[in-house]
Design goal:
By secondary structure, the protein is α+β, with helices and mostly antiparallel strands. It is built from 25 helices and 27 strands. The N terminus is likely disordered.
Length: about 800
């Protein structure tokens, strides 16, 4: 700095000398050579100042006149000669923070107390701030009075800014460096001496900063570990390794801690250095040890439990398993960890739910709740086992499910015992049902046999035989309803629907159910009651079952109230039904009511509180109404009676025109083919058809029917209609037969006939190519009406 000041002073003297010489040259301006020398001298002076960003000034103390060089004008932001600089201008453009120091320095220089030299801040013409370094020299007259003051000014704005930025950067770096959580050491690679250290590493090791910079790598590691540590250091310098883990570090007091040390090579001040970052892992190692001990403790507990236990992540991989699970799967636990649960338990390649199986773990992942279900597995020997799986979600601090605990319990013995018990209960229920059916059939057959026997005793002329046969027919009708009830339960009850009006069905079924009892009924029905699409026999069965139950709930007698209303349901109805128009039947008794503990179970199979009963009536009724797209529900209050509600979807169809109570017979003509495997059915059907005026041909099975139909087509004597039995023992039934006949004759008029009214073909006969359905046993009127509708237009 001293040399720099000397240079600046010399520069002032040189500039002053140049100014003096220029002044002499100006005095000799008549000499052309002197003028040219002056011009060249000033040009060199201006060029030198412009290159160095240095201007000079000359201040006449007495007159306060100031002379500036061209460069000084430019430094202040003016064009030469644009202003007349003076001492006041310099003071006015100076920054307030620098003004006092400037005035004091000028005064001290003029008094000869000290040389004039300082840095100050000022404002250029455009208002921007800038920094100058100035040096001045006082010139005295012969009497020792200050006459003039000359000096130079250098623009140091950019260097000043760069220096300030560097200082701020160094402060930031030092702040980050010293306050880093990790210890940092900078080491000279060649000597392995420390050249810089932060406060954190000093605290870690226990040395002061001065002590730290007097040490090397070998001083901060145990001597016996040093060769291995140096080897790790060399690997890092070669770029083979970024972080050396679990290295021992020796403190000043002789204690040792462990650190992960990451080292990077870089050049600082032309020297190859290594920057080492030390992370104290003592707490982490203690935590890992605690976790390991805790895991071992948990595993020891789980391995003492005899139930299988696994932990499953979101990818359905097993991350933990106990020995009971390994024993259950006959696999070592280490071979299980990391594999998919479905791969181990189900021997599958996809999650269980993708195969349609219920998965407790998936439910916990999706809903964040515990869940349980029963699975069927195969053990390693190929045997079937049943397990109950219970899943419990494990959540992170945000509440997200990260994994699930699954407890797996082998319930094979319990499951098989329950299945056996259920089969026993079903057999008992079927036996009870069979006994009741046999009892009812015997009563009905008594009426049939009695009526036929009486008919034989009386001559036809008296009309008694006809009345007896009518009685037999009535009993047989009841027998048919009984078989339909049994078939509805056994086959699931697919309804054969048609558009019906409910009032007549309701009255007939209620009268029949209450016949001979001490219970009456009153019925209130909307005048404009809507029609419904329903199976009349099944609805009759439902009404019969519910009314019988209501009657039995009032052993001392009473009145059953039946209310039939049109209702419209919407989303606010609270019922599990689609919105729309319905007919609601409410059947209310005055009995003792149903306890709450029983009310939720009354539609369960085999549940009954009666000493005699199968518990199937309400179950069958519930199934029938559900298959009609409706709802059967019940409400009850002990001591106040019960009310059953039937909801049936209303129909937009119109009711077919009734023909009156006495329908009469629809006679016809044409050729009819009947296929049935029962000889008695073929014989009776033949007599009935001949009585209606038809020619009849018979076949025992589908193969024979197809042969006869094809032969008739070839002889140009086709059948006008065919009646096909749906079920043929040991042969082709109606479903397969109609397919073949449609291939022969797409216009075939076929009627499906079956004793199983619940069969899907009978319920949706047109889908299979049939024109109509006859449910056995059928009456002569039904047979005549269907055939007339099929053949009337053809034979007209």
């Amino acid at each position: 700095m001293r040399d720099e000041k000397k240079t600046r002073k010399q520069l002032i003297e040189e500039l002053s000398e140049l100014r003096r010489q220029n002044a002499e040259l100006r005095g000799s301006c008549g000499d052309s050579g002197a003028v040219e020398a002056l011009r060249n001298s000033e040009l060199r002076l201006n060029q030198a100042q412009h290159i160095a960003h240095i201007g000079d000034w000359d201040w006449d103390v007495a007159t306060n006149k100031v002379c500036w060089s061209d460069e000084l004008y430019r430094i202040y932001g003016y064009q030469p000669c644009e202003i007349s600089p003076d001492y006041a201008l310099i003071v006015d453009t100076m920054h307030p923070d620098s003004r006092g120091e400037f005035l004091e320095a000028i005064a001290a220089a003029l008094e000869g107390e000290r040389p004039f030299e300082m840095d100050y801040t000022f404002f250029r013409k455009d208002g921007s701030g800038a920094a100058l370094h100035t040096i001045g020299k006082v010139l005295y007259d012969s009497e020792g009075n200050a006459q003039r003051m000359v000096g130079i000014v250098q623009d140091i704005t950019q260097p000043k800014r760069a220096q300030e930025a560097l200082r701020e950067s160094e402060e930031k770096f030092r702040g980050i460096f010293d306050n880093a959580n990790d210890g940092i050491l900078i080491t000279d690679i060649s000597t392995k001496k420390f050249t810089l250290a932060n406060r954190t590493i000093c605290r870690m090791i226990g040395y002061s900063m001065e002590e730290m910079l007097s040490l090397s790598v070998e001083n901060i590691h145990p001597a016996e570990e040093l060769p291995g540590i140096i080897a790790e250091f060399d690997k890092q310098m070669k770029g083979e390794k970024a972080v050396a883990r679990n290295l021992p570090v020796l403190r000043k007091d002789g204690s040792v801690f462990y650190a992960d040390i990451g080292t990077t090579k870089m050049t600082i001040g032309g020297e190859q250095c290594a920057i080492g970052i030390f992370r104290d892992i003592t707490d982490r190692m203690k935590m890992e040890e605690a976790v390991r001990s805790s895991r071992e403790f948990i595993e020891s507990i789980l391995n003492t439990v005899d139930e299988a236990f696994i932990v499953i992540d979101r990818e359905y991989r097993i991350v933990m398993a106990n020995s009971a699970y390994g024993s259950q799967e006959n696999m070592p636990v280490p071979d299980i960890i990391g594999r998919h649960c479905f791969e181990i338990s189900h021997r599958g390649d996809r999650p269980c739910h993708e195969h349609g199986e219920e998965c407790a773990v998936r439910h916990s992942f999706e809903n964040g709740e515990p869940y349980a279900c029963v699975h069927r597995h195969y053990n390693r020997g190929g045997g079937v086992i049943y397990v109950e799986t219970k899943s419990y979600p494990l959540k992170d601090t945000s509440g997200a499910v990260t994994s699930a605990i699954e407890v797996i319990k082998n319930i094979t013995d319990k499951h098989l015992l329950e299945e056996q018990l259920l089969r026993t209960q079903k057999l008992e229920a079927v036996g009870l049902l069979a006994g009741g059916i046999a009892h009812d059939f015997n009563n009905l057959l008594q009426g049939v046999f009695g009526s036929i026997s009486l008919a034989k005793m009386f001559p036809d002329s008296e009309g008694k035989a006809a009345r007896m046969l009518e009685g037999a027919e009535t009993a047989l009708t009841q027998a048919r309803n009984l078989t339909r009830q049994l078939l509805t339960f056994s086959k699931g009850g697919e309804p054969v629907k048609k558009t019906i009006s409910l009032p007549a069905v309701i009255h007939n079924s209620v009268k029949f159910a209450l016949s001979g009892s001490n219970v009456n009924y009153v019925c209130s029905i909307d005048d404009d009651l809507r029609l419904v699409e329903a199976d009349e026999g099944q609805i009759n069965q439902v009404m019969h079952n519910i009314v019988i139950n209501a009657s039995e709930a009032m052993p001392e007698g009473g009145t059953i109230r039946i209310l039939v209303r049109n209702v419209q349901l919407d989303a606010k109805s609270g019922l599990p039904l689609a919105k729309g128009n319905y007919v609601r039947i409410a059947i209310e008794d005055q009995g003792t009511g149903i306890p709450d503990s029983h009310l939720s179970r009354i539609f369960d199979p085999y549940f009954t509180t009666k000493r005699k009963g199968s518990g199937l009536g309400l179950t069958t009724s519930y199934s029938i109404i559900k298959k009609h797209g409706g709802l059967l529900d019940a409400r009850s209050q002990l001591g106040a009676g019960s009310t059953f509600f039937i909801y049936l979807p209303a129909s937009e169809e119109l009711l077919p025109q009734e023909k009156g109570q006495d329908r009469g017979l629809c006679l016809g003509k044409g050729r009819i083919l009947v296929m049935d495997d029962e000889e008695v059915v073929r014989t009776v059907a033949s007599h009935m058809l001949e009585g209606l005026g038809y020619d009849v041909d018979l076949a025992e099975n589908g193969e024979e029917a197809i042969e006869r139909y094809s032969d008739a087509m070839d002889k140009r004597r086709p059948f006008d209609a065919v009646i096909l039995d749906l079920t043929v023992r040991g042969g082709m039934g109606g479903r397969e037969t109609i397919k073949k006949m449609l291939e022969i004759d797409p216009e075939v008029r076929a009627v499906v006939s079956s004793g199983y009214s619940a069969d899907a073909v009978a319920a949706d006969y047109s889908h299979y190519g049939f024109r109509a359905v006859l449910t056995k046993p059928y009456e002569l009127e039904d047979l005549g009406s269907i055939l007339h509708s099929l053949t009337h237009g053809k034979n007209k």
